[in-house]
Specification:
Strands 1, 2, 3, 4, 5, 6 and 7 form a seven-stranded mixed β-sheet that branches. Helix 2 (35-40) links the parallel strand 1 and strand 2 (63-65). 35% of the residues lie in helices and 21% in strands. It has helices spanning 3-12, 35-40, 70-91, 148-158, 174-185, 205-215, 217-221, and strands at 17-20, 63-65, 96-105, 115-127, 136-139, 145-146, 192-201. The radius of gyration is 19 Å and the shape is globular. The N and C termini lie far apart (52 Å). The chain is built from seven helices and seven strands. The protein is an alpha+beta fold.
Length: 222
């Protein structure tokens, strides 16, 4: 998938998306019985700028392609659904996000320890009509965000400034955001932007505490 196109379908056009298991389009890879096998045999595709008029159908349809068999996909989605619902019931806020694109980065030029961080986070809702029906994914309507912890890390440790995301959804241009980030990391060894997309639970409670302490550091010293 292409992160900007998924953003357009879900957020801009406000369409519901579904999940496509691995074997639905690639019978040669149905030997993968679990996500670990699929991950080990597939390198993340690096993000490249593109023209929207020349995209293949699978980049513009309502299906999110996955690297999981149907059994594993349903198992994972149910686990995510259960955890997200539990947090919502217990704490009253949504922690389910679709992470569009990732940044592969390193602490230093000599480091061989690759680190991976999500870039854009879209608040979403996972639902199904019945136990036997398939899960569907929709945009929750809350504001999309750029990974706040990543923005602070890049600024503090690498002096890389990432401009804040537009406040109005209609003004957000994902292609422009990814291109700016690519330009900013161009001189860093082995760093790259990928098209990987993850559905997961993200909590920013600790980050909010960090920003609160940072903002009140002067008062704390007095």
């Amino acid at each position: 998938e292409l992160p900007p196109e998924v953003f357009r379908i879900m957020v801009t056009d406000n369409k519901v998306m579904e999940f496509e298991p691995l074997e639905a389009k690639d019978e040669d890879k149905t030997l993968f019985s679990n996500p670990e096998e699929a991950e080990q045999t597939s390198e993340p595709e690096e993000y490249q700028d593109y023209k929207t008029g020349s995209l293949a159908d699978h980049h513009t349809d309502k299906y999110l392609q996955t690297r999981l068999t149907e059994v594993q996909l349903n198992k994972n989605l149910f686990r995510i659904y259960s955890k997200a619902s539990s947090v919502m019931e217990e704490q009253g806020y949504n922690v389910l996000f679709l992470a569009l694109g990732t940044l592969e980065w390193y602490e230093s030029a000599d480091s061989e320890n690759k680190l991976v961080a999500p870039i854009m986070l879209i608040p979403v809702e996972l639902s199904r009509k019945s136990v036997k029906s398939s899960f569907k994914l929709s945009y929750s309507g809350e504001a999309p965000i750029l990974n706040p912890a990543l923005i602070v890390k890049l600024m503090n440790d690498f002096n890389i400034k990432i401009d804040p995301i537009a406040e109005e959804v209609e003004d957000i241009n994902p292609q422009e955001i990814y291109s700016r980030i690519q330009d900013a990391i161009a001189g860093l060894k082995n760093w790259k932007l990928t098209n990987d997309i993850y559905l997961s639970l993200f909590s920013f409670a600790k980050f909010v505490m960090y920003k609160d302490l940072e903002g009140n550091l002067g008062a704390a010293k007095e």
